[in-house]
Amino acid sequence: RKEVEQDPGPFNVPEGATVAFNCTYSNSASQSFFWYRQDCRKEPKLLMSVYSSGNEDGRFTAQLNRASQYISLLIRDSKLSDSATYLCVVNIIKADRGSTLGRLYFGRGTQLTVWP
Amino acid sequence: DVKVTQSSRYLVKRTGEKVFLECVQDMDHENMFWYRQDPGLGLRLIYFSYDVKMKEKGDIPEGYSVSREKKERFSLILESASTNQTSMYLCASSFVSSRAYNSPLHFGNGTRLTVT
Predict the structure, then answer these.
(1) Strand bridging mode A110-115 / A11-14
(2) What pLDDT does residue B91 have?
């Protein structure tokens, strides 16, 4: 089982729609979570961190459900410029030669296209 | 703003050539990473480094090596390029507050390598 799983989509929505992506992770000891955005043929860029109590940044809302081990990203009032691939990223801690070592694991991404 | 610079945007090499991909970051970050990204496979970690002269294998190190002689520079080396190493290569950096926790990654704009 992959450490981080995402629905690859594609999601095709009209401008103004609300769209939500989910992501599940395998390790209950995970402590930090992020959403990245990647435009076509560009590098991934941090969209937002995800905090335990949930957090909002303009039209974007991120939620964390530790009990069910998933995080979500909600985009309200979609814009054409929101078209991109959204990557879920989880810091997973594993034992490594007698100590713990954290590593960031990426989901494969969810593709979003917003049409006029 | 963090700047991660990769030396080449596009590179074409022949099978069997030795290839160097260079990455420099200007924010005094301890951690540096090399990923490759292929359609349908997402981002896969090749090697990473938590300090100068230190390196750790990621998930797909075979056919690659790395060098970190200075804190700001992390080089990826393909000892003998093969066609299955045709890919987008992404370098990233982050600071670390502990071995268990990873702060968000900052990516370079990628090197698209074609091996013919």
Answers:
(1) parallel
(2) 97
Query: Cα separation of B16 and B40, whole Å?
Result: 26
3-state secondary structure of B96: coil
Whether chain A has a CB inside 8 Å of the CB on B47: the answer is no
**pLDDT higher than threshold 90 for residue A32:** no
Q: Which residues of A touch B (CB under 8 A)?
A: 31-32, 34, 42-46, 49, 87, 89, 91, 93, 99-104, 106-109
Split at pLDDT 50, 70, 90, the class of B2 is: low
Cα(A28)–Cα(A31) distance, integer angstroms: 8
Q: CA A68, CA A64: separation in Å to the nearest integer?
A: 9
Burial class, A13, CB count within 10 angstroms (exposed 0-12 / middle 13-18 / buried 19+) = middle
